[in-house]
């Protein structure tokens, strides 16, 4: 079984000033946070 560390994670600013992190290879896998670090921790 793959770990999240095995996937490419995309991090980008969102329109409302927060950040979104998502994994393109896993449909529906995304998280938001007030900072880039918070989005990655989700």
Keywords:
42 residues, alpha+beta, 14% helix
Describe this structure in words.
- This protein is α+β, with helices and mostly antiparallel strands and 42 residues long.
- Strands 1-2-3 form a three-stranded antiparallel β-sheet.
- The chain has one helix at 36-41, and strands at 10-13, 19-22, 30-33.
- The protein has one domain (4-41).
- The mean pLDDT is 93.
What is this entry, summarized?
With 42 residues, the protein is α+β, with helices and mostly antiparallel strands. The chain contains 1 helix and 3 strands; from the N terminus they run E-E-E-H. A 3-stranded antiparallel β-sheet has the order 1-2-3.
What is the secondary structure topology, with strand pairs?
Layout lengths: L9 E4 L5 E4 L7 E4 L2 H6 L1
Antiparallel strand pairs: 1-2, 2-3
